[in-house]
Design goal:
The chain has one domain. 71% of the residues lie in helices and 0% in strands. Helix 5 packs across helix 6.
């Protein structure tokens, strides 16, 4: 069972359904290539259509100033907390379809739709 979580936007609803159907029909490698080509195409459109609201002003920044936040304990703890939070959010979502299939006795096809339903409800 392949699961893909892409967020709560339209892609978060469409991608899991597309992935689960394509894995069964075309196989895993071409499913991942197709998803990558779709993402690439959308990124190309975004790169050429998005413009900054205010013209950027270049500033010189020394390397020491760039690395300074990583030497502060509160910032390092924040990064560590964000990493743990990410695992706390995504690991339960990964097992959502498996739980639906094994414990709620849903059909395998219906359990694959749980990810899309979850993303649509967020």
């Amino acid at each position: 069972m392949g699961i893909l979580v892409t967020g709560s936007s339209v892609g978060g609803v469409i991608f899991p359904i597309m992935i689960s159907h394509m894995v069964q029909s075309t196989g895993y490698p071409w499913t991942m290539r197709t998803a990558a080509f779709i993402i690439l195409g959308l990124q190309i459109i975004a790169v050429f259509t998005i413009r900054p609201r205010v013209k950027p002003v270049p500033k010189k920044m020394p390397a020491g100033r760039l690395a300074a936040p990583f030497l502060e304990l509160p910032f390092v703890l924040l990064l560590f907390g964000i990493g743990i939070l990410t695992y706390g959010i995504f690991i339960p979502i990964v097992y959502l379809a498996v739980q639906g299939f094994q414990q709620a006795h849903m059909s395998e096809e219906m359990s694959q739709y749980l990810i899309s339903l979850f993303n649509a409800a967020r």
